[in-house]
């Protein structure tokens, strides 16, 4: 791994222990990346099973109940446990490097955020082996989720509660990091766009996750402790859940898509060899999208019966989001205009992204048209729309960034040739799968159906859609293969792998040492590395300080222990409604472990340690040969 | 609406879409071949929105392909150094203002239609004698079936909605257990049935359903909100009749008042039904709404068994023997004692004989 | 950092932000409070929409249930504790460790007083039949006020930990931000209580 400090061979046990206790943002990025990939693969497999079931009418490949579990877990996993951690992986890796920091503001919390996410996700997935997965859709609307028998929904509520806490903690950490940890000269209006989008996206997490936390808590006490929030016979109201869920749920889309925009805003200038066009308007558009993202949640509830005035207001507000998004698209195109386009794998994803995402965006505007949405809502049109946005926007960004940032992560490059194969198979498969679904929806097919009868005119398009899904699966398999093969390839040991890097992360030679920058860089303008290159600086950066001692945080196992405590407590809560006598003690023990770990953390001084200048020189010599990072 | 569009010079595009889209789907279920005022207006909005949006996609794609073709490094040379441009205020203004104009064009009909579709004030209007002037149907969605009550006629039916053509039909919608959503794609958009409140809206049926789908003669209705394992099977059918036929149907329904099944009946089917089924399923249309199971007064006239299976005696038998197989999670399973084959067959015969149309 | 000896003269103007870690903590708590505000906003919205909602023939309404005098005393306890917490921060800036410990201690005592009254209040409601599962109203009430109570408990444990842990160490730039951050958090809890007093009790009794 690139971030291992010294090239001495370590035993397997030591490496595992290192990853369990690490607070290094680069190692946590690797953990996020692999766990995100794992859940991406699981959720993708679930999607494939569903598409096989829907390939033909009246198919009985999968039973109705199982299908509902699959559709719930597919949506939940993809959004919370695949897209989010994958993007967090990139944010963790790249943001500190881009702003010239040695680590994030709260390395300990960074680790805690990861472990909470991971154990929450694991908890949710245990449901498959422990009496059935949640089956009320990723939206888990209250009346159905209260009615749903078994423990599926309980797994959903507790698993998301834990992993959501992790996401919130990570979000706070990113915000503070970007506010306080910028290198000298890195003003807000010099920050790379990916850092900007990470900041706005984290801010959205900050405001969007608490309503989800509250919603999940209300669901939890309703299901497990006989509260009455959503039971209308006791005065409750299920519409509260819909509001809380969508006040979270709509910003969630932007939480994911904004970093994706940021990634493309990094990739496109590099391969167009041209400064990002309209930087300040891009920043403004990002902020505006983030802001408007909170004003439009009720467009998911046009058919709930909120009344004409609410529907009209939310319709117009939703349409307004198209304006800043359009600004972004045109800025990207104008970045390429007049540039010198080098077609590489990341760039071809970026090029495929623009039309796909625009197609997804415009169908979004169509749904904002409330009276038209009465027809489109909960039909396959919606399924087509959000997959165009999520796959066409977010997944392409993630795939592009695998290729783009692989050298930073692992000091290896992924194969270009295999990358092109992946792209074409996946991209064609994607359009085959989802383009026809627009028409299925318009032809009257509701979403979330486990089967359909013949004679409704849907057979052909469903078949095409399933073929596309199989192609997408092949694409993903090739992608993973490419990753595995890259590990066998030669280490790169170079700086600026793509040749036209512009921001600080490319100024570092790989493998990146665990302290990132031996001296804090001085940022002299937007695209600092580009500026230094233009001036012929061989080290790629000007330094803000002389070589001296570096302060680094200590590793800690406590984040994992805290997370395990909650994991244990969740089992107690889960079995509480069954009247199991051990449920309350288990809850107490679990929470006790967490609280104890927290007290240990706060009572014990953790001052970190200092790395001396001589040690740094020694490490650099070992990593890069005599002369260090030159 | 189409008239107004001409001046936006979107008409050719619009016409092309109308032709392409209207070829899509089956008349009895496709939103692209609407057969009611609500659905038609929604379809027109779809055309308008699609046209604007296609315009956007085309402009972006052309611009982008042009850029891509023009500025390849393979053409410009490895060492070509592009001019590092910061941005352009003029361009920013252009691509902010144009989308705003396009959205304004779309938002005006959106707002108008939103208010129009939500206007159910006519529901409460009464004539001089105090009778309501408009037809209202109370819809109750239950786990995997639909109940339709006609309060002004005092009749109840299930699974098959019967409505008159060419007038606004108003609906009060509610769910009895979990949330569902009421959708007749070919007639107009959907609305949710919530558990805690009544939603109201209206639809118009332009055409009699008699000739649809080679004589099947019904519009297809769907549940559009995930409601459990059998969500996909929660279909209903709609018959639209001209006012005269509708009135006749109402009269026939009202005439079933007092009809019931008797345990003493010499007909084995009726007797078995009375013992095992009558507790949940009424056989008179003049019964209180809110029954446990669908009202079966018109069973013989229906188009489907349990909303999904072909309407044959074999399917009725199969359904009675094992409802769980056909609708997982339904509430009928295990609610009655095991019946012998002979009894099942007799009940099926009895059910098929229940009719108001013959 | 722990070893540096300060005098009131060399002690920095803003001890809570004098180190990088301190500054991170200072920014971090504000960011955290932003998200906690949204959490309470969601709970308030839920409470308002479920106020006095319950099964047919529900016994209790907010008018009958809440008693302003008790709520007023609780409010006074908490508001005073905010003031004493300000004193503690005043001494923190002046490098007077004894003052910090003393006034933080008084803050804890006032917080405990508040908590005792709240526990009494809850116990009383449950005793007269207004339990957590009695109605949507009761669930919403206990969840909103209880979440605030949980915040109070966390704040108290936090401050007690600080007092005990630092008793023998004195004030330095490592623990000064910790006191400061805990104090900000405590003020936030007070502000939330003001809203609870207004929305739940005052509006509850006045209708």
What would a concise description of this structure say?
The complex is a heterotrimer of chains A (630), B (358) and C (207). Chain A is mainly alpha-helical and 630 residues long.
User: Which pair of chains forms the biggest interface, and how many residues does each contribute?
Assistant: A-B, 89 and 93 residues
Provide a count of the helices of chain A: 19
Shape of chain B: elongated
**Helix share bin of chain B:** 25-40%
CATH topology category name of chain A: Cytochrome C Oxidase, Chain A
Structural class designation of chain B: alpha+beta
General description of the model:
The complex is a heterotrimer of chains A (630), B (358) and C (207). With 630 residues, chain A is mainly alpha-helical. Chain A has helices spanning 12-21, 25-53, 64-98, 107-126, 142-147, 152-180, 193-224, 238-272, 279-292, 308-336, 345-368, 370-376, 380-410, 416-442, 459-488, 528-534, 558-574, 583-603, 613-624, and strands at 521-522, 542-543, 550-552, 609-611. Helix content of chain A is 66%, strand content 2%. In chain A, 65% of the residues are buried. The model of chain A is unreliable at 1-7 (pLDDT under 50). Chain B has eleven helices and twelve strands. The longest helix of chain B has 34 residues, at 37-70. Residues 1-8 of chain B have low confidence and may be disordered. Chain C is mostly helical. Chain C has a domain at 72-207: Up-down Bundle (Four Helix Bundle (Hemerythrin (Met), subunit A)), CATH 1.20.120.80. Chain C has six helices and no strands. Chain C has helices at 20-50, 62-65, 68-93, 97-127, 136-166, 176-206. Chains in contact: A-B, A-C. Chains A and B meet through helix 3, helix 5, helix 8, helix 9 and helix 10 of A and helix 3, helix 5, strand 7 and strand 9 of B.
